[in-house]
Design the sequence.
């Protein structure tokens, strides 16, 4: 029953996203990177992401960005070391761009082509799955970007001469609000 | 080319003069050599001639509103060879690349907050072509409310971070090395201060203590002198590490002072007395704080 209601609601709500001229602002966002090491697991979280979406003629461009130094792993010394490793002094922002058609809003799962600028590199990730839920003028997007350190030409830092894993999945939780 | 031929002629004259040849011989030699030089100069074009065919490309990078875009990355790629020359737009948005061979080029312009634009330009020989670029962005970091100060990094900032990491790595390594003479100093203290202590065991204790102090000083130097990164409040285990440094730091200064007094008293045949009696307890507290400081940051990257 709930599923039916949700589908019905989404079909109704989709046109809000799909409207020919609309603008979306990121209400609040969480970006969470995860680093794995045989002796240690680290999560760095940023709530400082800002984002904007602009839709024209059924095509939407989204940009989300956060200062690299806004990621907090609970240890400022480690965060500064990470900032150095990812060249955050020279490239202080991480940004994610995507282009979606309004049709995408008709599904609860969307596959987005992402263009990520980080550590002085621009890397594209194709067809990254995100869960989408729309409630009125609010859209919530969650998913995980399968990032790798080597994609951005970052040398994995080591602990006790053992480097961390190359995979640094970034969990994304973004809540958008329709601005106009 | 003619200058080269003239030089050749002069050389021929000199060589001929040395050998004592007659003037008709010289004329024949000149007639034989000049065509060879001409042919060689045609087969191997001089750098001056190659330069004459090279072209230049310049232009202005602007944003959608017409404002110039400074520090945009401009990559000029020769389509045929794949060779790429990179430059950046200056404060007035202007860029220029010279020394390009005639041909087709892909000019890619990118800047933070803008979509990368690539345009193809054909360069004729000896041309000064212009390719103005207007960057478009769906959205930019400025649209998100980030200030240029937040979005623009610098090599100097990165260098400061690199220096900090390097110095703290040395601090860490020397800090770990210190533990060896520190433990040995503690171990030898048993025979250094007791009733049946000898001069030899005391001297060994002093030598190990001195080594500990010196290495500790080096380690502390790298921690204290490592560049500070503004706007980064201390969080997590490093907080405890720094607090503990306020215990073992003064302890590492006080311990040898008290030890020196105790050493003199022992060498004078006296029992250790007065303030020197604190040497042992201070050393133990210092060593404990030092060990705890190491443990507090042991589990990190």
Sequence:
């Amino acid at each position: 029953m709930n599923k039916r209601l949700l589908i019905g609601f989404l079909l109704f709500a989709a046109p809000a996203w799909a409207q020919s001229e609309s603008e979306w602002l990121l209400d609040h966002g969480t970006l969470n990177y995860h680093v794995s090491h045989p002796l240690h697991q680290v999560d760095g979280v940023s709530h400082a992401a800002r984002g904007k979406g602009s839709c024209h003629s059924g095509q939407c461009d989204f940009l989300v960005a956060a200062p690299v130094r806004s990621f907090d792993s609970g240890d400022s010394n480690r965060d500064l070391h990470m900032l150095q490793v990812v060249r955050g002094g020279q490239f202080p922002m991480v940004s994610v761009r995507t282009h979606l058609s309004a049709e995408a809003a008709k599904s609860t799962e969307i596959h987005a082509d992402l263009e990520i600028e980080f550590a002085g590199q621009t890397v594209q990730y194709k067809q990254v799955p995100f869960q989408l839920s729309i409630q009125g003028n609010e859209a919530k997007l969650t998913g995980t970007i399968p990032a790798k350190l080597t994609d951005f030409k970052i040398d994995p830092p080591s602990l006790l001469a053992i480097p961390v894993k190359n995979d640094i999945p970034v969990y994304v939780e973004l809540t958008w609000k329709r601005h106009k | 080319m003619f200058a080269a031929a003239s030089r050749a002629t002069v050389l021929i004259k000199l060589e001929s003069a040395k050998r004592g040849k007659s003037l008709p011989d010289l004329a024949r030699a000149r007639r034989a050599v000049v065509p060879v030089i001409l042919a060689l100069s045609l087969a191997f074009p001089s750098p001056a001639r190659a330069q004459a065919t090279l072209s230049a490309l310049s232009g202005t990078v602007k944003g959608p509103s017409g404002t110039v875009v400074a520090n945009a990355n401009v990559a000029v790629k020769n389509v045929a060879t794949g060779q790429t020359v990179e430059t950046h737009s200056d404060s007035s948005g202007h860029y220029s690349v010279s020394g390009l061979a005639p041909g087709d080029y892909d000019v890619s312009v990118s800047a933070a907050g803008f979509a990368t634009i690539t345009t193809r330009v054909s360069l004729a020989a000896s041309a000064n072509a212009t390719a103005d670029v207007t960057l478009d962005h769906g959205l930019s970091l400025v649209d998100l409310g980030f200030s240029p100060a937040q979005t623009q990094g610098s090599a100097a900032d990165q260098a400061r971070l690199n220096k900090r990491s390097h110095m703290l790595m040395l601090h860490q390594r020397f800090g770990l090395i210190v533990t060896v003479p520190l433990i040995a100093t503690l171990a030898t203290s048993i025979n250094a201060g007791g009733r049946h202590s000898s001069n030899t065991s005391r001297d060994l204790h002093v030598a190990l203590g001195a080594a500990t102090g010196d290495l500790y000083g080096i380690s502390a130097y790298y921690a204290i002198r490592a560049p500070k990164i503004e706007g980064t409040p201390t969080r997590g285990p490093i907080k405890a590490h720094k607090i503990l440094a306020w215990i073992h730091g003064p302890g590492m200064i006080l311990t040898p002072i008290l030890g020196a007094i105790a050493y003199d008293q022992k060498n004078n045949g006296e029992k250790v007395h007065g303030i020197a009696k604190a040497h042992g307890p201070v050393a133990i507290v210092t060593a404990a704080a030092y060990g705890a400081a190491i443990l507090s940051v042991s589990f990190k990257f």
In short: Residues 2-18 of chain A form the longest helix (17 residues). The interface with chain B takes residues 35, 37, 39-40, 42, 50-52, 54, 61-63, 65, 67, 69, 72-85, 87-93, 95, 97, 99, 117, 122, 157-159, 164 of chain A (CB under 8 Å). Residues 2-178 of chain A form a domain with the Lipocalin fold (CATH 2.40.128.110). The radius of gyration of chain A is 18 Å.
